[in-house]
Amino acid sequence: MADVNKKQKGQYHHGDLRRALMQAAVDLVAESGVEGFTLREAAKRAGVSAAAPYRHFSDRADLLAAVATEGFNRLLPALQAAIDRTEDDSMAAIAGLGLAFVEFGVSNPSHFKLMYGPHLPDRAAHPELGDLDLEGFRMLSQAIARAQEEGRLTTGEPRQMALVSFALVYGAVSSYLDGEMTRLGFSTREAQAMLEAGGFYLLRGLARS
Amino acid sequence: MADVNKKQKGQYHHGDLRRALMQAAVDLVAESGVEGFTLREAAKRAGVSAAAPYRHFSDRADLLAAVATEGFNRLLPALQAAIDRTEDDSMAAIAGLGLAFVEFGVSNPSHFKLMYGPHLPDRAAHPELGDLDLEGFRMLSQAIARAQEEGRLTTGEPRQMALVSFALVYGAVSSYLDGEMTRLGFSTREAQAMLEAGGFYLLRGLARS
DNA sequence: ACCTGAACACCGTTCAAGT
DNA sequence: ACCTGAACACCGTTCAAGT
Lengths: 209, 209
Prior knowledge:
Two copies of one chain form a homodimer.
Chain A: H1 17-32, H2 39-46, H3 60-84, H4 90-107, H5 109-116, H6 127-149, H7 158-177, H8 180-183, H9 188-206
Helix pairs in contact in A: 1-2, 1-3, 3-4, 3-5, 3-6, 4-5, 4-6, 4-7, 4-9, 6-7, 7-9
The first copy, chain A, binds a DNA duplex (19 and 19 nucleotides) through residues 12-14, 17, 38-41, 48-52, 54-56, 59-60.
């Protein structure tokens, strides 16, 4: 049960330096935000020199993008599972997607910040990120379209209704992670209650009257 | 009409270095994000040495916090104006608050990011920021309470309904500013349309049935 | 009171050299 | 193929010294 996060003393090769660096990034972001992450500190925690990361990542941003990609690769199956779990109820599927998204963000704050935050300077350099992002959004759009076909949601562009829903859950999670809710005097419990109520209010507004 | 942003050549005193540094910060954040802002570059643009800013700000974070404070000092009057403009219609006041918030964010992206983003490492060091933040939130809560008294919104904790509304507009603005909407394939026009529709859907959900 | 110049510790990144 | 050590340009911050 060797610790894969640190190089064995005296060993020349690391084992899985790529993994260890990504884990160090997640830890550092959790500890002190994305600004608090430095390549040198990540290398130090993995027990290698400051130059070693450049064998595995082209630069600092490339490492962060790899963590973001890992995040999408965790989120998308969770969203799919939420849909599968509610095969019979199209409205429940939409609510389930929202809850799964929120749960993912709260459980994976470092990943979430890198996936959706302003920290990746050149997203064009990582096209796979955009593709994964779009795929999640398409799941939501399709769930909304399905509910419309069943006559349970009001008419309107599914894409637009999806974007409204996304803005709500995205705003909820990121303002929570940024500490805005705490600043406004909400406890974690209250914040959670509001998330559920928020989804309820919005769904009510989207519902067929 | 002297350029207050640069020190006159040969002049020893600057004139208003504090202002010039804050303006440089706004510009740098707009150009390359908060990560792209450096104290040294701001000082360079103001025409002073790298140590000069420390006469006016205790450190880098203090300068950024000053810009955030300036942002709240612009936002709050805009919110108040939105309320005054719709004295007679409590529902219009809520919608007006949302639109004013969105308009502020789109027009003052650098300020908005610093006010609500994760970039200020120690917000406790700047208590006035939390106060101003809360004041804006109280405006929204009161508008909601008023609409409830008039029987136009469903019952429920105004604070909680305000938080839901805040999450929606906050999510809309910050995902727009972070480029997420563009990534999802929405044009600026579409994004704007969705903002309006989003407010409509949510208000509909909050309305008394 | 306000600013400069030099200094320190730190960072991202490169590159020749080691195993 | 993978990593080290030294180097470079840059950054935040401090401090003695200048005006």
